[in-house]
Amino acid sequence: MRTLLTVVGVGLLLAGCSAGTGAGTGTGPGATPAPGAGQSAGGRAGACSPSVSIDSFSDALDKTTFDGTYVGNLSSLDVDLDGNIAALSDRSSLFTLDARTHRPTGVVALKDESGRPLDSEGLAIDRDGTRLVSSETEPSVRRYARDGTLLGRLPVPDDLRVAPAGRASVNLTFEGLTLQPGGRTLVASMEAALSGDQGNLVRFQTWTRTGDTDDFRLAAQYGYPVDPALGVSEIRATGDGRLLVLERGFIPGIGNTIRLYLADLGQASDVGAVQDLTQRAGRLVRKTLLADLGHCPSLGATAREKQVNPLLDNIEGLAVTGRGPDGGLRLLLVSDDNQNPAQTTRLYSLTAHLPEP
Question: Which of 132, 261, 277, 346 could form a disulfide with 197 if both were Cys (CB 3.0 to 4.6 A apart)?
């Protein structure tokens, strides 16, 4: 769901807020790409940056249906145990996409404990095939069987709940969800700051479990410095303990800003007990800019609304699908069209080469 920049971020942008020390690199969120953006960096075809290249994109899913269900509103992707792609819609539909063609082959409906639909935003496939799904309504993280049967629900800290129950804002809660290697640590990312926290600091909540149990318990919480006027739309484990983080924003008449960061929680402080999170509250998550996707070659893409690069849309989902022959991570991204005629459901295939830990 595309709400952050239009609702919150314009004020931040006009106020000229900036990410604090250690927040990594990047230009302003509403900035037009520099001259030459979209050309190959360092002479590499398809290069978005020295670290990231775009291989292809596809609009084949745009404004289509499968088994009577609209194929759109896609907010998260993950690789299933059989290698196919699980694609989550924020309208409570969980699709299976063929690993090769990315065409839908199945869909199940997800419901809450009362049989109502979710505002489902984050997805992680557990080691036994269980689907872990975050909803930003409360927010919540629920466990589902492959057929959509609700299996349980994880605890959530009170402060992360939507006001007045907590300090979070409506539609700006658990946007991203991922499991670290081994399946024993689950991470959820808040999209925007809590009331009382510094405006450019969002919280990443973790859960852990031991042994073969399915039960997660609350664990450390970390502060992540987001770029001005952007929000965290997705996180995904890289396989080495670090995270890929998608930051996203939108300004009408200018378009989307989409940045891909590499984040390391290893040296960050646990801020779960910090009431008002500031730059001085502890060690924040360290992040490194991998690419501003507005600098990617457009590959001939077109856009229905104004964009600084017609390739861009409201990108919300990210999956790591494997490694290429050169060792780069193969990434699949998807945009959420919000079932809006002016937006597009678009899949993007990228390759990212990560710096050494």
Answer: 277
Residue 92's closest CA among 103, 79, 80, 76?
A: 76
Rounded to whole angstroms, the Cα distance separating 53 from 40 reads 9
Neighbouring residues of 357: CB distance < 8 A, sequence distance ≥ 6: 240, 241, 242, 264, 266
Which DSSP state fits 82? Answer: T
Gap between the Cα atoms of 332 and 129, Å rounded: 20
Q: What pLDDT digit, counting tens, does each position of 46-92 carry?
A: 999 999 999 999 999 999 999 999 999 999 999 999 999 999 999 99
Helix (H, G, I), strand (E, B) or coil at 8: helix
Residue by residue, DSSP assigns 15-61 as HT----TTS-----TTPPPPTTTTSPGGG-TTBSSSSEEEEEEE-TT
| SS3 of residue 236 by DSSP | strand
34 Cβ partners below 8 Å, 6+ apart?
A: 27, 295
Q: Which domains can be identified in the chain, with CATH numbers?
A: 4-352 (2.115.10)
8 A C-beta contact, residue 350 and residue 333? yes
CA 226 – CA 192 distance, rounded (Å): 8
3-state secondary structure of 294: helix
Q: Is the pLDDT of residue 146 over 80?
A: yes
